[in-house]
Structures are given as structure tokens and as C-alpha cells.
Amino acid sequence: MSDALLSAPVAIVGEVIAASLIVIASTKIRKSEKNINPALMGVMGAFIFAAQMINFTIPGTGSSGHIVGGILLSCLLGAWPAFLTLSSVLIIQSLLFADGGILAMGWNIINMAASSCLIAYPLIMKPFLEKFKNKQELSYYNNSDRNNLSDSNADKNDLNNNQDNKEKKKLPVWGFILITILSCLIGLEIGAFGVTIETLISGITSLPFDKFLAFMLSIHFFIGIGEGLATSAILVFILKYKPELIINNENQKDKKSYKGLIWKFAIAAILVGGVLSWYASSFPDGLEWSIEKVETASTEESPTTNNKLHNLSKAIQDKSSVFPDYSFADEIEENNDNETQVPGITSERTQTSAAGISGALMVLIATIIITFIISRKRRNKEKDSNYKNEKS
Amino acid sequence: MKNLDIIITEVRGIETNSNKNISRLNIDPRAKIMTAFLFLVSMLTFSVYDLIDTIPYVIVTIIANLLLEIPFGYIINKTKVLLLFVLSIAIFNPILDRETAFSIYGINISYGWLSFFTIMLRGYVSITVAIMLILSTGFTPFCKALSKMKVPEILVSQLMFVYRYIIVLLEELSSMMNSIKSRGYGRKRFPIKLWSVFIAQLLIKSYSRAEMINMSMISRGYNGEIKTLSNFKWQKRDTLYCVAFITLIIVLRFIKPFSYIDKLF
User: Fold this and answer.
1) In chain A, which residue's Cα lies nearest the Cα of B168?
2) Quick check: B119 and A204 CB within 8 A?
3) What tens digit of pLDDT does each residue of A288-322 get?
4) Is B74 an 8 Å CB contact of chain A?
5) A71, A78, A249, B40 — which has fewest CB within 10 A?
6) Using the beta-carbon criterion (under 8 Å), do A3 and B131 form an inter-chain contact?
7) Helices B4-22 and B139-148, packing angle to 10 deg
């Protein structure tokens, strides 16, 4: 992202969001029970910088790339410290190496640091790590194995035992690699999506949204896989020789309530629903667009075809959907009936944003209900297990 | 593969260059940061089709560049990578947007080309301003100014740490590269397997180094705040500089000196 591709309001919004995230991160680190040493964060930031200097060849393509390092840092330091470290690296890159600009810094931090450290890592990588940490399966090369690696004259019996151990625990490693690739991929794709949305809202490019998005997402798909492979290769190496670096990270489970977070998400969802729905209504999404194309093609070829199933499904959809194409169904019909009453663009916008906001609210409510049910189930399970433990 | 030695000298050069420039423009870093920010924001408030109103910003940047005696080659060398990225997105505008804006001597100029040039100029100005800001301030005073502007202390210390250890780790990396080159039988490429072992070694080394640094810092009484010798106070000339620069920005933004250019002919 660069200053040149942003308009002033978009850039300032980005700066404000990034600044507030940084403030949250620093207060969280200050208040955290675990003592995170700043020297470690700083040196790891410099390490990421140095690691970006050495490119690796991406298998099968012959091209080369370097890592961004969000997931790697999160595994070593934890989500918030990693976010802070990566944003300091990004700030230094934008100032000293002309990578980005002063105003684009905010969005760069959000797209590159926040997407991988605060979204992809806690959602995908962290649950996986915790699951295997509890079972102590992640440290699949135990201490005796490490001694064997250094000691070439190990007994044959010992080696055989270790091989058995390895075979038993091979699966988590492959799962680990897959999960790493997945989380890197998702982090990068969110970032790419962010870049597209920001450029679009700034009104800089005359590229159509869907094509630009498809272009960015497909490029970042391959970059993400490369990044994931590289990150997982490093992590597997560290698991082999210094597993405590990854396993000791984030020992305490967060037992705080997520009420504050839910409010933040609610506000964000309303904002997104209200503002972005203006754009959503004017550009049909990819699926709709392709369906439209198919429909027109089919009617051109055989105008008399009467697809009963299609009509039936359309009728069901029209009746069941509260907001067909993000506007209240009845109002659209009214507008079509008497054109003199069309209230103009502004009211159309308010209609679409009202639909967007209420849609977002509905999704939010559904998510809250689902999480409530899941947490309740989990609590019950925990209770059961506690009861069983007490009994035994 | 980037040449590590060149990068190391570049990073070192920033500090020496800035030391040279500070004496030339001895103004409070806070004033510089604020004015640079306002300058860029005011430039971005123009729409992408206001090519004529963007040109004065380029002129101001070039004049500032000449006053600070930063070589143009240096700036172009730094900007080329990012400008290529900007170009790859901006190039679609002239292709897709072919509506004619105006014509000079029979040559039709479309809105697409207008927006293309505006975007490229914006890219140049924004990067140059960032480079000039840091070269005329120096990184440590810049961090000090940030902490005086109520930026969280953790972030400021992070910035200082990363900046300090970039050179150390790059030198470490450089010696590792030298050893791999001298034993690598002319290998130029790094497949992921070799790369990961190489980088993970560096990581483990850096990790143990960080632990040692932390120990030594605690034993010297570190309490979460990095203290520096450079200290500055807001003076009259800083206020003067701010007033002058903000009037310049107001002129550029609201009076638009170049919009009268067509009345001259």
C-alpha cells in the first residue's frame, strides 16, 4: 500500500485504527501477567527484517520470495507482542527504506500485521497449538531424541524406540504444517482484500472491483502458500531443536469476558454494513454476476425454455428473503409502481444502509447465539470431566 | 538476492547523513513530523484528476530536497520499488478510462492519463517526504519526539531496538552468507529446506542474544523506558517554522497557485 493509492479520509481512518490497535497492544502487554521482555521483541523484529533479506526459491515455479513473518512472530511471542513488533518493523521500513509512506502506514499495519497476528493466528493457529500443548504432543522430539541427534554413537535399541515414537507422532507435524500454511494464507488474503477495499473506497483506480479483487486474491494465494511453507519449515526446525520457544508461549489462558470485544465488533459490523453496502449494492457479487450471465445466455439461446425448478427457487427466494439485493422488498416494488415517488439517491442509500446494518445485526445476533450455545456445551463438558476427576 | 553489505552501509549511512543534515535544519522534530503529516494530508484531499494542483507539491518537495542536499539518485533509488507497485495499479486507469478531459494542440488527453500522472506524482512526493523527514532528523531524535508526542513507550522502545539490532543481525547474516558461499560450490539459490535451516539458525542465535541483552539491561536498571542524551525544547524558531509551513500548505490547498496558469496565456 502506498500514499498515492489512498484518499485523505481513508488514510486518516487507517491511521486512527492502527494507532488505537497499537495503544490496545501496549496496554495489554503492560498489564499481562507474563513478563514479556522488550529486548526479545526488538531483536525478533530485527530478525524478521534480516530474514526478509534472504529470498527462498518457491518450489515448482523458480521464482523467489521472502516472508512477512506475522505467524512466525505470533508463535514465538504471542499475538499482541507480535503485532507490536511487526508494526514497528513496518514503520521502520516505511521510514528508512521507503516502503509505503507516512499516511499509508496505518493501513499497512492493519493489512500486514493485524490481519495475520490478530485475526489469522488467534483464530486458527492458537487453538491448534493449545490443543497439542495440553496433550504434550507437540514436543514430538523429546530430550533423549535430541541427545541422539548430537550423539552419533547411540544405541540401536534407543534409536528404534525413538523411531517408534516418531511414527506415533508424525500426524501432528503434518497437521501443524497444514495449519501454518492455512493461517498464513488467510492472513495474507485478508490483507489483499483490505488493499482492494481501501483503493476502491479511495476512488483511485478505475478497475472494476470484482476483477481487481480476483487479481489480488489469486496473486496472494500463491504468495500465501509460499509464506506458509517457509514459516512451517522454520517452525518445524525450532520444534526439533528448541521446542520450548513455541510451547512456553502464552501459558495462561485468557479468562476475561469478551463483552468489550463483542461491543467493538458490533460497532464495526454496523459501520461496515452501513457504509460498504452502498458499494455492495452497485456491484453484483461474483456469484450473482456469473448467474446473471448464465441466465442471459440461456434466454438468448432458447427463450421458450421454462425452467420450473429455477422459477420455483426464485419464487421461494423472493418470498423468504427480507432484503432482496439489500433493499427492502416492498419499497422497491412501490418505487417501480409509481415512479413519481422515487425519493432520489440519498434515500436509496439510506435504504441500502438500513438493510446493510440490519443484516449485519442479524449475523451478529446469530453469531452470539451460536457462541453462547458452544460455550455452554463446553462448560457442561468441563463440569462433567471435573466431576469424573473428583470421583476417581 | 539483495546485497547485504550495501544494505548495511545504507543503514549506517542514514545516521551519518542525518547528523550532517541536522546542523543545517535545526528544528524540533515534532514540528517536522506535524508539518510533514499536514502537507501529505492536504495533498491527498485533492481528487485524482487535479493534476495541475498536485504539481506545486512536487515543486515544494524538490526545493526542500535541494535545500537539504540529498542526492536525487539516492531518492530515485529508494522510490523505484514502491513506484513500480503504484505503477502496476495506476496503469489500468488510462486503459480503462478513455473519456477525453481536454485537448492540447490536437492531442486528446483522457481522464485516465490525468489520474495516472497524479497518482505517480503523489507516490513520488509521499516517499520523498518520508525520506527527507528521517534524513533531516535522525532516527533517535525521531523516536524521542514520538515519545514526547505521547506515543506508547513500548512502541518507541521497539522502534529503537529494531533499528539498533538491524545492523547487528545483518552483520551476523552477512558472515553466515559468506560462510555458505565459500562452502556452497557456487550455489546461488535457496530451496526452502536449506533456507529454513539457515534462517532458523539465525533465529535461535538471535533469541539467545536477546535473552543476554535482557539480562544485561535489567542488571543496569532498565524500567521500561529508554533514556537518550538528545533532548530538545520547543523554541521560537520552531513556532515560526510551523507558521510558515502551514501558511504554505494553506496557499497550496485553498488558493491553488497553479489554477491561474491558464489565465496567463
Assistant:
1) A46
2) yes
3) 444 444 444 444 444 444 455 556 555 555 554 44
4) no
5) A249
6) no
7) 70
ipTM confidence: 0.88
Sign of the C-alpha dihedral computed for residues B15, A37, B220 and B172 taken in this order: negative
Picking from B163, B209, B213 by the largest number of A CB atoms within 10 A of its own CB, the best residue to mutate is: B163
Chain B: give the shortest CA distance to residue A5, in Å. 7
Angle at A91 between CA A265 and CA B252, to 5 degrees: 95
Query: Do B49 and B115 meet the contact criterion of CB atoms below 8 Å apart?
Result: yes
Is the pTM above the cut of 0.90? no
Instruction: Report how far residue A158's alpha carbon sits from residue A148's, in angstroms, rounded to the nearest whole number.
Output: 9
Instruction: Assess contact for B126 and B36: CB atoms under 8 A.
Output: no
Minimum-distance CB partner of A234 among B14, B119, B199:
B199
pLDDT (tens place) for every residue of chain B, 265 residues total: 567 788 888 888 777 776 666 655 678 889 999 999 999 999 888 888 888 888 889 888 888 888 877 778 888 888 887 888 888 888 888 888 777 777 777 777 788 888 888 888 888 898 889 888 888 888 888 888 998 888 888 899 889 889 888 888 988 888 888 888 888 766 667 777 788 888 888 888 888 888 888 889 888 888 777 777 767 788 888 899 999 999 999 988 888 777 776 666 6
Q: Do residue A50 and residue B173 have CB atoms under 8 angstroms apart? A: yes
Q: SS3 letters for chain A?
A: CCHHHCCHHHHHHHHHHHHHHHHHHHHHHHHCCCCCCHHHHHHHHHHHHHHCCCCEECCCCCCEECCCCHHHHHHHHCHHHHHHHHHHHHHHHHHHCCCCCCCCHHHHHHHHHHHHHHHHHHHHHHHHHHHHHHHCCCCCCCHHHHHHHHCCCCCHHHHHHHHHHHHHCHHHHHHHHHHHHHHHHHHHHHHHHHHHHHHHHHCCCCCCHHHHHHHHHHHHHHHHHHHHHHHHHHHHHHHHHCCHHHHCCCCCCCCCCCHHHHHHHHHHHHHHHHHHHHHHHHCCCHHHHHHHHHHHHHHHHCCCCCCHHHHHHHHHHHHHCCCHHHCCHHHHHHHHHCHHHCCCHHHHHHHHHHHHHHHHHHHHHHHHHHHHHHHHHHHHHHHHHHHHHHHC
Chain A: residue whose CA lies nearest to B92: A207
